[in-house]
Specification:
The structure is a homodimer. The first copy, chain A, is α+β, with helices and mostly antiparallel strands. A 4-stranded antiparallel sheet of chain A has the order 2-3-1-4, with helices on one face. The first copy, chain A, is built from 2 helices and 5 strands, in the order βαββαββ. The first copy, chain A, is globular, with a radius of gyration of 12 Å. Chains A and B meet through helix 1, strand 2, strand 3 and strand 5 of A and helix 1, strand 2, strand 3 and strand 5 of B.
Chain lengths: 82, 82
């Protein structure tokens, strides 16, 4: 398992309810890909959403987001934390 | 207080020790700007570092990073979380 930060652009105007619904859609299927989405942060003004996860690979993270209908624009392996 | 995610680019090859030292430099002065850096994640391969903070403003976050010698390339107010 590794830690990933993925980024979605173009989410301008996203609401708290929409972010929560998108996160629930990921949580509902993440176990099938052995992914654990830990937290999500959203900036409606610039349309940026960040998702922190533990997962076996970038591809597994993307498969969950793809199936939930919101493909990530960037996925970064973040092996370092402080 | 609000929550911010800031992003540093061009940190390719950053090590765990370097990330920890940079974070410590922020922590050492953050109180003067009423900022609380909560966590930092780094991707040495793409040179991307994410910092999560509670702060009074984007400008306060940037002042801490500036004074610590590592200006952020992006600072996002993230009022939404899930």
């Amino acid at each position: 398992m590794a830690t990933f930060m993925d980024v979605h652009h173009g989410m301008n105007g996203i609401t708290a309810d929409q972010l929560a619904a998108a996160h629930r859609a990921d949580l509902a299927i993440q176990a099938e890909e052995h992914v654990n989405f830990k937290q999500v942060w959203g900036d409606p003004e610039t349309g940026t959403v960040y998702c922190l996860s533990d997962a076996p690979s970038k591809e597994a993270v993307q498969r969950v987001h793809d199936r939930a209908g919101h493909r990530a624009d960037e996925i970064h392996h973040v092996p370092l934390t402080a």
